[in-house]
Fold:
Amino acid sequence: MPAKLFWKLYWKLSGWKVNGRWPPDVRKAVIIVGPHTSSWDVVTGMAARSVIPIPHAHYLGKKELFKGPFGWFFRATGGVPVDRDSKNRLVDQVVEEFNIRENFILALSPEGTRKRVDRLKTGFWHIAKQANVPIVMAGLDFSKKELILSEPFFTCDDQEADIKKILHFFSPIRGRYPELGMGHLG
Structure:
């Protein structure tokens, strides 16, 4: 069974729906997906990518994953290898991916982990700013089985204002484990 058909079937059988739409003219963007509280977020996100559809969607993975016997799998599912040991260069590596590709949609978690956080990571913001691409927020609300898409927006010069906007969007959204979500940050 082709992967897209599998994901569409999974989406339908699991009862998820989409609130919003992917802007068809956006060929490059950073999608921040949250709240990231469970491994099921990845499964639901993979299904959403096929259902919406979001063309040219990718995610980052440490370069070592792409060298082993399953490297083909990570590439086939949209993985992009990065050198995570050079933290200062990570943003530069990803911005370069945006610069060399005509179509590149990158999905990231603004928390950077499935654990409860006291603040969001900001690498996604720096990537979007330096690559001059919009951010689209995608909220996975497990209480409603609803993926909520925001309109795309470009970063402003005030990172704190953008983070407040992002927290306002994500705070009411309940992840699979709501206690690990972003509600306490907003």
Summary: The chain has a mean pLDDT of 91. Residues 3-180 form a domain with the Glycerol-3-phosphate (1)-acyltransferase fold (CATH 3.40.1130.10). The chain has one domain: 3-180.
